[in-house]
Amino acid sequence: MQIQNIQDLLRELREDNTSGANELIDKALEIIRFQLSLTDDPRKDIKEEMMILSKQIFDARSSMAPLINTIGFLIHNLELINKAIIEERLNQFLVDREKRKESLEVYFHAFLGEHKRVPLKVMLISYSSTIINLLLKNKEFNFEIYVLESRPLLEGQRVAETLSPHFKTHLIIDAAMGTSIDEIDLVLVGVDNILKDGSIINKIGTFPLALLANTRKIDVYAVCDSYKYNLKSHYERSILILEKSIKEVYNKEIKNKFLEVHNYYFDITPPEYISGIISDLGVLSIQKFLEKVKKSLPIEWFKYFIINKEI
To answer: Which of 160-169, 181-190, 239-248 has the lowest mean pLDDT?
Structure first.
């Protein structure tokens, strides 16, 4: 289908429930490029248009930290915003993103070098393209994978199908995580957001998995790009975890007025249940990660939206 305008692109970004962070960022960049294409003069000041568009992208994915930080990279420290500057920064962003990816790969490989068991038995939850790609780049460690199905959308099935041609893989229902926990050496979880206190937002079930692993003294590491640090949380704005369609978990007519059905995609895991974060900044404790990420991101730019009460 041909995209007609920016609103179509924003709607696609808002309604996408299956893509990972990088795919959603690419969609946001496509929206920005569309906006730039509407401007003929590369030196014309388009600050007002870009600020409005930035707010629209925020609203489309209000809790997605990488989108906020991506826009921050594009427009921070700019009194004048024009097409030429943004195009230059778009190109630089792609270069920097690749560098962050490469750094994460180096740190993840070094982390695995500290774990000598063969096979290394790892439990995963939900679909993280970052973790999947890292595992596939390190096949020599001969992993044995335990994948939770990840209700309600069952992304775990896709993970199992992707990894099973390369590693022995077990697909188990979420509620059965306790039956396999004593078999594993390590839990790896993806990250949707990292909050100011070091808590992580990830697919529903991450919190009980981390709790369970802690009872068995099994390390739980979050794996992510440092752009997952959430600036809304940094400035003490609330992060809402919205309910999704109940039809995904209860596809019947509700006839009993006392029956309430809830469907959450995400939960929050407190930092005390996370052993550390593996990112492009290193293999770090929660506290060390927070110290480094606050220096690496253009945090101050976000104050524009705070001051103008747009967030």
So the answer is: 239-248
Choose among 99, 37, 57: nearest CA to 226. Answer: 99
Q: Give the active site residues.
A: 192
Q: pTM of the prediction?
A: 0.91
Q: What is the spatial distance between Cα 267 and Cα 204, in angstroms, rounded to a whole number? A: 5
**CATH code of the domain occupying 6-100+299-307:** 1.20.120.420
The domain made up of 102-296 is a member of CATH 3.40.50.10470: yes
Q: For residue 205, what are the contacts with CB-CB under 8 A and spacing of at least 6?
A: 125, 126, 148, 150, 151, 174, 177, 267
Bridge pairing between strands 200-203 and 219-223: unpaired
CA distance 277 to 220: 9
Q: What is the pLDDT of residue 1?
A: 37
The answer to whether 147 and 169 have CB atoms below 8 angstroms apart is yes
Contact 30, 19 (CB under 8 A): no
Left if phi > 0, otherwise alpha if psi is -120 to 50, otherwise beta: which for 103?
Answer: alpha
